[in-house]
Amino acid sequence: MTQNIYDTAEFFAGYSRLPRSVDGLAAAPEWPVLQAMLPAMQGLRVVDLGCGFGWFCRWALEAGAVSVLGLDVSENMLARARETTPDASVAYARRDLEKLDLDEGAFDVAYSSLALHYIENLSGLFEQVHRGLVPGGRFVFSVEHPMYTAPDKPGWTRDPDNRLSWPVNRYPDEGARSTDWLAKGVIKQHRTLATYINLLIETGFTLTRLEEWCSSAEQIAAHPDWAGTEERPSFLLVSAQR
After folding, report:
1. Residue 178 bridge partners (DSSP)
2. What Rg, from alpha-carbon coordinates, does the chain have?
3. Burial class (CB in 10 A: 0-12, 13-18, 19+), 142
4. What is the spatial distance between Cα 182 and Cα 180, in angstroms, rounded to a whole number?
5. Which has the minimum average pLDDT: 51-55, 142-146, 160-164?
6. What does the pLDDT read at residue 105?
7. What whole-number distance in Å separates Cα of residue 19 and Cα of residue 24?
8. Which of 57, 58, 208 is nearest to 137 (CA)?
9. Alpha-carbon distance 97 to 77, whole Å?
10. Stretch 91-114: mean pLDDT, rounded?
11. Which of 41-50, 137-146, 225-234 has the lowest mean pLDDT?
12. By percentage, how much of the chain surpasses pLDDT 90?
């Protein structure tokens, strides 16, 4: 089963204070780019893999989706999502994405934000997404960029000349990484960018767009605490078609 770190009190309390937890998609710096990779939602059936507080589910409904299903392994996340989603056209269910079973052709769009780097059996999940989408359906997702998941202890450091550097060690060595983010011992799965793309192709998807998100000078000016994110991509954004 996927590590359910979100149902531990310490982690959930910290996560609930993050800007994107408080202000939703508006506080996610990569959202405008990710949104541009999505099809028009009008009349579509949507599934959100790792829906969290339901921010995207509510956005998809407001954008015209006819139905939205949000899936998450965390009871804490699902409870918050249900509390803040009064519309019955959005349904939430507890599912372990490691063991997902989607009905064939049940959805037009599958979406996932910053959840898939927790999944060990990613090839199995991609197969289920492919099965669950109609022909021509879209799969749009974001993950932490592999440059961030590669090191055991990610973080910017400064050399003796005060230059920022990022410890991208053991990049080709894929597998579990234990990091201390909001709580100790959070397990993420490191994969190279090539592995993400090749898994999609091997599953039968056609890649339609790939972005390696870095902050712009304008974003750094507006958010000085993002300093450094303009030098290395923070997120990998992918759009594929069944």
Report:
1. 187
2. 18
3. buried
4. 6
5. 160-164
6. 98
7. 7
8. 208
9. 15
10. 96
11. 225-234
12. 62
Residue 11 scores a pLDDT above 80: no
How does the average pLDDT of the chain come out, rounded? 89
Token pair recorded at residue 229 = 């994110």
Q: Say yes or no: domain 5-14+42-145+188-241 is CATH 1.10.10.10.
A: no
Cα 207 from chain centroid (whole Å): 17
Instruction: Say if residue 22 is exposed, middle or buried (CB neighbours under 10 Å; 0-12, 13-18, 19+).
Output: exposed
Supply the DSSP string of 24-81, one letter for each residue. GGGG-TTHHHHHHTSPP-TT-EEEEET-TTSHHHHHHHHTT-SEEEEEES-HHHHHHH
Summarize pLDDT for 39-55 with one digit per residue, the tens: 999 999 999 999 999 99
SS3 (DSSP) at 83: helix
Q: How far is C-alpha 217 from the chain's CA centre?
A: 24
The answer to whether 204 and 130 have CB atoms below 8 angstroms apart is yes
